[in-house]
Predict the 3D structure of the following.
Amino acid sequence: MLRTFKADLHIHTCLSPCADLNMSPRAIVNRATERGLDVIGISDHNSSENAPAVMKAACNTALRVLPGMEVTSREEVHILAVFDTVDKALRLQEIVYEHLPGENDAESFGLQVVVNEDHDVLGFNRRLLAGATELAVEQVVEHICGLEGLAIAAHVDREAFGIIGQLGFIPAELRLDALELSANLSPAEARRRFPQYAGFAFVRSSDAHFVTDIGKAWTSLLLSEPTTREIRKALHGEDGRRVVAEDG
């Protein structure tokens, strides 16, 4: 049986240097539940180290947490990767870390805090998570697809780090599952602004860096269950699965 799931697939934790330190696993889960979300994606910059903690924090709730990350290509394009399992997210993390130069300067960029589900500090990530990888955007997408994840171009309506703003276009061969809009642009407006990309599904996400931002934008999806396989079908309009409402 199909039902509607309310999804916000782009949420940062305190691991992202630009996120508030109060973005703890339980705070994220509690806020997502308060906002009536069914599915959330954990999408820290170039890392999935806090995704398992958020998944554990949601264990006794109805909330489905999908692990992933927001990868920065060498062109400084942000691509969301969304997976069903931690193993696949951490495999992508290994690939990203192999191609991520630099060391974080906490005073310049912010702390990168690794925590458990209770927000106990386990350590600090020293990599330059705010930086760009050495991977071309095509390579980023291919790695995500190779691990059976969803590949979504992040906040395409933004000049900074959006694929259209960075490249000027979306390469025709890029195997994207969807284009993400920021909370500032409705899908109807996006279709008028980007008519050449009418073949893509548009999703809206909060890109939350603060607890109060969680669920400020979302996408409703008609699925049988909240898995990446089902979400992909909805994004491509297959087997009766579909995007029910793009307006959060």
Notes: Residues 86-98 form the longest helix (13 residues). The two ends are 24 Å apart (CA to CA). The chain has a mean pLDDT of 96.
